[in-house]
Design a protein that fits this description.
With about 500 residues, the chain is mostly beta strands. The chain is built from 1 helix and 31 strands. Strand 7 and strand 8 form a beta hairpin. It is globular. Bound molecules: beta-D-fructofuranose.
């Protein structure tokens, strides 16, 4: 083991002891210590789910990336393992960036990641040269391949930038060899996704451009993932530099799903539909895996580059993952719901049927910060649809976050302005819930200590946000401008 990895492992063991369990999310993976961003190497190996992540153990801010490592049997109860990769080679000395994992024919766990080395460009600016490398291991310790990097600028099609070539997503093709989809920046300054092939995971060659963004949806596309689901090809990317489009896409770093047809033989993707993956504030760089029982499960970084300042830099951990979500394609759209394993954590049901709400109301037993809430709303009088429904949560005298639904323009808003944030960043986001003008809406709201995730109309849309409100703010209250009937089921989530 190199000194870099040894030091990181020793440091994280000591520093993590200073973080009490109840200062972390209860069932969302957070960084062992220091900083976390993208999920990496999300895979199933030797009976357990492995989740790696972009990791700076030494401080709660982004810096020279390592790979953190955690394992779980149910995707909810996570145990930390020692850091898997440290930036300890000449080709990755400035960072081990995002990548994926797979199991080789000989049963080894292989990680493919982007190695970063800073180099001065012709103007004397420091730029990141990005190449791809692999490391093999037993689920605990990983050995970087002696002939790394396995893909470099030499393998790029003409005009592609050697400073933006990252985030390999690898899978075994129907032919039996390996394919990797890697993000790159072509000469137009936008994004493209490149396909590479390998017989064994070690020797790679460039195959073709799968898709060019052509400056249509943001610029560089980061962290691609591609799979078949319900008879469709599904491509996930996280674009940088987005321009807004109605309430579908917001400015800055976003998430995007293209649904269409993927022909693996030809290496072609025919797009039929595009949509945001998550319409909230904090969600980026998702990655998926196929569970043993064939469910396509996605997990994302529940934070966003444009809103990182929400987290106080003095905190000992920064960054958490979203809930693992089961994906489906229905009527050409991506649907997502919390993995069904979450149901097994439900305790102490409180239930209300068709309660009339006019003005402000609290309901006995409806409160808490680690809960699962199913809520159904409809207008008390279909000829006079209520104007606005608000649910405040994580609420006390000083704090609240809110979910606000306005049937007249069919918008659902999540607002964390009063959650305790002291930063001038995005605190609010809205999405358009089609077909809700009559005031009917179904919501599932999963709260963990430092987050809220909303699943709208059986998973048709999702909205996620992190919030760092003091944990004694447990209140939930409802407010209706007009008259609405509310049914709900609330469960505590107990691990
Ligand atoms: C996305 C990303 C990736 C990169 C990593 C660096 O959030 O920018 O493209 O590999 O983060 O930490």
């Amino acid at each position: 083991m190199t000194k870099f990895l040894y030091d990181a492992r020793r440091y994280e063991l000591q520093a993590s002891a200073l973080i009490a369990d109840d200062e972390r999310p209860a069932f969302h993976l957070s960084s062992y210590t220091g900083w976390m961003n993208d999920p990496n190497g999300f895979s199933f190996y030797r009976g357990r789910y492995h989740l790696f992540y972009q990791y700076n153990p030494y401080a709660s801010r982004w810096d020279t990336m390592h790979w953190g490592h955690a394992v779980s049997e149910d995707l909810l109860r996570w145990s930390f393992l020692p850091a898997a990769l440290a930036p300890d080679q000449h080709y990755d000395q400035d960072g081990c960036f995002s990548g994926s994992a797979f199991v080789t024919s000989s049963g080894e766990h292989m990680l493919m990641y982007t190695g970063v080395r800073l180099e001065k460009d012709e103007l004397g600016r420091m730029r990141e040269v990005q190449t791809q490398s692999v490391a093999c291991g037993d689920g605990l310790d990983y050995q970087k391949y002696a002939h790394n990097p396995v893909l470099t600028e030499e393998d790029l099609p003409e005009g592609s930038s050697r400073f933006d070539f990252r985030d390999p997503k690898i899978w075994r093709s129907a032919r039996g060899d390996f394919l990797a989809l890697i993000a790159s920046r072509p000469a137009d300054g936008s994004g493209q996704l490149l396909l590479f092939r390998s017989p064994d995971g070690f020797t790679w060659r460039y195959w073709k451009v799968l898709l060019s963004n052509g400056n249509r949806l943001g610029k560089m596309w980061e962290c691609p993932d591609l799979f078949e689901l319900d008879g469709k090809g599904v491509l996930l990317v996280s674009p940088q530099d987005m321009l807004p489009r109605g309430l579908e896409y917001h400015n800055g770093n976003g998430t995007l799903c293209l649904i269409g047809h993927f022909d693996e033989e030809k290496g072609e993707f025919i797009e039929e539909h595009d949509q945001a993956i998550d319409y909230g504030i904090d969600f980026y760089a998702p990655q998926t895996l196929l569970t043993e029982d064939n469910r396509r499960v996605m997990i994302g970084w529940m934070q966003n580059w444009d809103a990182c300042a929400i987290r106080e830099s003095a905190s000992l951990w920064a960054g958490q993952m979203s809930l693992p979500r089961e994906l489906r394609v229905r009527d050409g759209r991506l649907y997502q719901l919390p993995i069904r394993e979450l149901d097994s954590l439900r305790r102490n049901e409180r239930r209300y049927d068709e309660v009339l709400i006019q003005g402000r109301k609290t309901l006995a037993g409806i409160e808490g910060r680690v809960i699962d809430l199913e809520l159904e709303l409809r207008s008390a009088d279909p000829s006079r649809v209520y104007r606005k429904f608000t649910m405040d949560f994580a609420q006390n005298k000083e704090h609240r976050s809110s979910i606000i639904f306005r049937p007249y323009n069919q918008t659902l808003t999540i607002d964390r302005q009063f959650s305790g944030s002291r930063r001038a960043i995005v605190h609010q986001r809205s999405c358009l819930v089609k077909g809700s003008a009559d005031g009917s809406l179904k919501l599932r709201i999963v709260l963990d200590r430092f987050s809220a995730e909303l699943f709208i109309n059986e998973g048709e849309m999702a909205m996620s946000t992190s919030l760092y409100t003091p944990l004694d703010a447990v209140g939930i209250r409802f407010d209706v401008d007009g008259e609405a009937l509310l049914s709900l089921k609330k469960y505590e989530l107990v691990l």
